[in-house]
Write a sequence for this structure.
């Protein structure tokens, strides 16, 4: 999903990792929305007995489709703005 393993991310971001953060903690809202859906689909595919290779292929297609769908959604843009405002409020 993020183009790298958790371990690779940790090695490239040691300062963030030392703060207890992981790749999901610094992901954008679109990625988190897509990831949430992929986790559900993956659980379903596992339940259906699909092997890892098949799941990865199907999840890759789903991720691409979902990113394309949410790119221009007004609700996602509004959610991003709400998230920024909330984060700024707590930075003070």
């Amino acid at each position: 999903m993020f183009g790298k393993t958790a371990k690779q991310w940790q090695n490239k971001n040691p300062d963030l990792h030392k703060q207890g953060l992981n790749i999901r903690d610094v992901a954008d809202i679109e990625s988190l929305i897509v990831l949430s859906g992929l986790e559900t689909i993956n659980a379903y595919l596992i339940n259906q007995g699909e092997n890892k290779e098949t799941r990865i292929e199907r999840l890759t297609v789903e991720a691409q489709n979902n990113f394309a769908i949410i790119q221009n959604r007004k609700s996602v843009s509004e959610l991003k703005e709400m998230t920024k405002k909330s984060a700024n409020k707590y930075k003070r």
Notes: Helices lie at 6-12, 14-18, 29-47, 52-70, 74-91. The radius of gyration is 16 Å. The CA atoms of residues 49 and 60 lie 18 Å apart. Residues 6-91 form one domain.
